[in-house]
Design brief:
The strands form two sheets. The protein has a five-stranded parallel sheet, with helices on both faces. It is 57% helix and 5% strand. It is mainly alpha-helical. The protein has three domains: 11-145, no CATH class; 171-367, Serine Threonine Protein Phosphatase 5, Tetratricopeptide repeat (Alpha Horseshoe); 403-635, P-loop containing nucleotide triphosphate hydrolases (Rossmann fold, 3-Layer(aba) Sandwich), CATH 3.40.50.300.
Length: 636
């Protein structure tokens, strides 16, 4: 749920006001131009069609042969709308902006680009505003990539404009690029702390990225400033549920429910509470009557996630309902919502054992405007790690004394499960997936992460200490005797940095059958950007780079890294867990098998799995999809 009005405007609703832009475009075409093309009595009908937004009919009429009298002779003259627009001698900026919209509506891309060029030439004094207008038009026409490029250029040219920055954040959010969106919103609220829209949308991004505590704090500040903000209250309820603070969420819901309306109906929030607290049938009962007529993707997502928890016999109706809903509204969905719906349908087909259908849904989801994955930076980072001096990895001053455990590995390898087991001990605090180590790596390398291993060699003791304190600052409320468990999987890239800052830290590398882990990544809709996961060949490449890096770290950091296999954790639980706690240096809790009752919040895609007892059905899952995985083997 995002705020598309507070502190900004919704480009899809407000770009052109109430009337459809095509009407004005048609009326402002010069009469003599139209007459010159022999439109005659058809002109009124064409303008009427455009005024109603019926571009298909208008285009058909334009393309029909007309009786032309330009040279005094009557003959058929096939004339289309693109020719009329292209030859219209327009010098009015507002008309040109609306003309772009009209051209896009009839797929006249070249005409739209020509109109945009004219618009830029006329408004050389304020090109940022032109790019902003063009971005809004592209967005209203569902041309999201072009909209993002245009608004990014507008923001580059005028970084002080709040509405451009807010639109850029929304565009990133639309694609599901939450880290980039959160960065834009953060910079916007630094300049204007009262920008409610940026604060709410930033909180939504941070919650999805796993930093729920930060999101809760931001939403609480919004409500302190604007107690009646329904968008902030609804998202705070969801954040509290994500953090496992369901009792407070329930109380807030009781005060919020009477005001709930529009995009945030009371049943959605109540169903979200039901789904997150293990009451899926109650959630289904609330939402099922609303799905067919709903325009709220979040409602359908909660409905679908609840259906995944039902017995397979009860999943048919939700599967059909969500499929029909997607076919009905797909043109209006954001890229991230469309992708999420396809993943959800894949999961429901998978639950029913319909693996071919499931894979088609997963493949469709991954093909919906995926971000580009560049392999070379990962190769460069591996080369840099392997060539770095061993001393730069292991030596350094003893930083602030805290017990730190980092769990690294591939996503979907079992890192969330491992965190839940470890934090059954009262001596361990689950910190979730913290991005701080990666941010430090970027800072010490001047933004070029590939250079961080060599930069460590010249990093002074004072700066190491400062970075160590920066990392630990986020845990100042945790008792000093407790272990802090950071389970950011991608920290496998920064093991050298971890030991440089915290020589006494321990690392557990979670491993899993490479086919299962790659398939699981491919079938999941992660929060944030994971560009490597949208193609099977890229997933296999990423896995291999990860394995090569960890092989290097184990050879240079002997005794500080323990490998744990997911399969051993499932099939030989007691022995594996006993050895793991021995490695950490704390006593194994007597009830470690009851990890699914752990109240440590799980904010990742695995939040439902870790609330179940040990099960082995995920081992060897790749065999069910083997016929579709040929591309996975291309990198091995």
């Amino acid at each position: 749920m995002t705020d598309e009005e507070s502190g900004g405007s919704d480009p899809r609703r407000r770009a052109h006001g109430g009337a459809h832009p095509g009407a004005t475009s048609a009326r402002t075409l010069r009469a003599d131009t139209a007459a010159g093309y022999g439109l005659g009595g058809a002109q009124a009908r064409v303008q009427e069609a455009l005024a109603k937004g019926d571009y298909r009919s208008a285009l058909t009429m334009f393309r029909e042969p007309r009786e032309s009298t330009r040279d005094g002779a009557h003959h058929a003259d096939p004339c289309d709308i693109t020719g009329v627009i292209a030859r219209a001698d327009l010098c009015d900026c507002q008309t040109l902006a609306k003309l772009i919209d009209t051209a896009l509506a009839v797929n006249a891309d070249e005409v739209a680009e020509e109109a945009a060029r004219r618009l830029l030439s006329l408004r050389r004094d304020d090109p940022a505003a032109v790019y902003y207008d063009i971005a809004r038009i592209y967005f209203s026409r569902a041309r999201y990539r072009e909209a993002l490029m245009a608004v990014a250029e507008a923001h580059r040219r005028n970084r002080g404009c709040e509405k451009m920055a807010f639109f850029l954040g929304m565009a990133y959010q639309h694609f599901g690029w939450l880290s980039a969106a959160a960065g834009v919103y953060g910079r916007l609220t630094e300049r204007n702390p009262a920008h409610v829209g940026a604060m709410v949308n930033g909180a939504v991004c941070y919650n999805a990225l796993g930093d729920t505590e930060l999101a809760i704090g931001m939403l609480e500040r919004v409500l302190a400033y604007d107690a009646g903000n329904e968008v902030a209250a609804a998202n705070l309820i969801m954040c509290l549920c994500s953090a496992g603070i369901t009792e407070r969420a329930e109380k807030l819901f009781l005060t919020f429910e009477p005001r709930a309306s529009g995009s945030f109906p009371g049943p959605l929030l109540r169903a979200f509470l039901f789904e997150r607290t293990g009451r899926p049938q109650q959630a289904i009962a609330l939402l099922e009557p609303l799905v067919a007529a709903s325009g709220c993707a979040q409602l359908v997502m909660v409905y679908g996630r609840s259906a995944k928890q039902l017995d397979v016999r009860l999943s048919t109706r939700p599967l059909e309902a969500i499929g029909a809903w997607k076919r009905k509204v797909s043109a209006q969905l954001s890229v991230s919502d469309l992708r999420a719906t396809s993943f959800l349908l894949g999961d429901l087909h998978d639950k029913r054992g319909e693996y071919d259908r499931a894979f088609r849904c997963y493949r469709e989801a991954n093909s919906i405007m995926p971000p580009r994955f560049e392999r070379q930076p990962m190769k460069d980072l591996l080369r840099s790690i392997e060539s770095a001096c061993v001393d730069s990895v292991e030596t350094g001053p003893a930083g602030p004394q805290r017990n730190l455990l980092f769990i690294v590995g591939m996503p979907r390898s079992g890192t969330s499960l491992l965190e839940q087991i470890i934090t059954m001990s009262p001596l361990a605090h689950g910190a979730g997936e913290r991005p701080t180590i990666g941010r430090i790596a970027r800072e010490i390398s001047g933004g070029n992460v590939c250079a961080y291993p060599s930069a460590l060699a010249s990093l002074s003791a004072e700066r190491k200490l400062a970075f160590a304190r920066l990392y630990l600052q986020q845990f100042r409320h945790i008792a000093p005797h407790r272990w802090i468990v950071d389970k950011m999987p991608a920290n496998f890239q920064y093991v050298g940095l971890i030991f440089a800052l915290f020589p006494q830290a321990k690392i557990i590398h979670m491993r899993r059958d490479w086919r299962d882990v790659c398939l699981s990544c491919y079938c999941h809709d992660f929060s944030g950007r994971h560009p490597y996961k949208h193609r099977l060949s890229d997933l296999a490449f990423y896995y291999r780079i990860h394995a090569d890096m960890m092989r290097h770290w184990r050879s240079t950091c002997d005794g500080k890294i323990m490998g744990v296999d997911y399969e051993d954790l499932i099939l030989r639980f007691d022995d594996t867990v006993r050895g793991m706690f021995r490695f950490i240096g704390i006593d194994e809790p007597a009830d470690s098998r009851n990890f699914f009752n752990n109240d440590t919040p799980c904010r990742t895609a695995s939040y439902r799995e870790v609330r179940s007892p040990i099960y082995a059905t995920s081992i060897g899952r790749w065999r069910k999809y083997e016929r579709h995985l040929a591309e996975l083997y291309s990198e091995t």
